[in-house]
């Protein structure tokens, strides 16, 4: 389901959040499908449950998941489209591209970076 890279500079909770977000957006976790409990995922990944809880809280804040008290966390039905998130990310990308150009990164280098990411 989710794999962690301990050499990655990103915190573990962000790796978990990104992994779950990808599963939801790609449809691997369907709408209203139950996510693993905090404890079971923490045990499976051999990490602290607080780390999982932080990832779940942030995903809930971004409307990718929702919680039902006493039942667990579920993939949000409207997260599959993720139009709002897509717009947010495109705005962030525009800001980054503008700053990178200001710092002297060429358009060709940016295009090469995007093409590399698609592979």
Textual characterization of the structure:
Strand 1 and strand 2 form a beta hairpin. The chain is mainly alpha-helical and 119 residues long. The chain has five helices and two strands. The relative contact order is 0.12. Helix 2 (38-45) crosses helix 3.
Average pLDDT for all residues: 88
| Strand line-up in the sheet with most strands | 1-2
Q: Unreliable stretches, pLDDT < 50, 5 or more residues?
A: none
Percent of residues in beta strands?
A: 5-15%
Rg estimate, integer Å: 17 Å
Instruction: State the distance separating the first and last CA atoms.
Output: 21 Å
Helix content: 55-70%
Task: Summarize the biggest pleated sheet.
Answer: 2 strands, antiparallel
What is the string of SSEs from the N terminus onward? HHHEEHH
Note the overall shape.
globular
Number of DSSP strand runs: 2
- Structural category is mainly alpha
Q: How many H/I helices?
A: 5
Topology of this structure?
Blueprint: H1 12-25, H2 38-45, H3 49-61, E1 65-68, E2 72-75, H4 83-102, H5 107-118
Antiparallel strand pairs: 1-2
Helix pairs in contact: 1-3, 2-3
Provide a concise account of the structure shown.
The chain has 119 residues and is mostly helical. 56% of the residues lie in helices and 7% in strands.
Which key features would you list for this structure?
119 residues; mainly alpha; two-stranded antiparallel ribbon; 5 helices; 2 strands
């Amino acid at each position: 389901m989710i794999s962690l890279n301990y050499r990655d500079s990103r915190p573990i909770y962000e790796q978990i959040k990104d992994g779950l977000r990808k599963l939801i957006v790609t449809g691997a976790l369907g709408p209203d499908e139950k996510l693993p409990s905090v404890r079971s995922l923490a045990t499976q990944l051999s990490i602290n449950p607080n780390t999982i809880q932080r990832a779940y809280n942030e995903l809930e804040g971004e409307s990718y998941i929702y919680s039902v008290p006493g039942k667990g966390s579920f993939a949000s039905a409207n997260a599959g489209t993720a139009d709002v998130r897509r717009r947010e990310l495109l705005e962030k990308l525009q800001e980054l591209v503008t700053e990178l150009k200001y710092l002297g990164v060429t358009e060709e280098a940016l295009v090469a970076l995007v093409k590399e990411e698609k592979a």
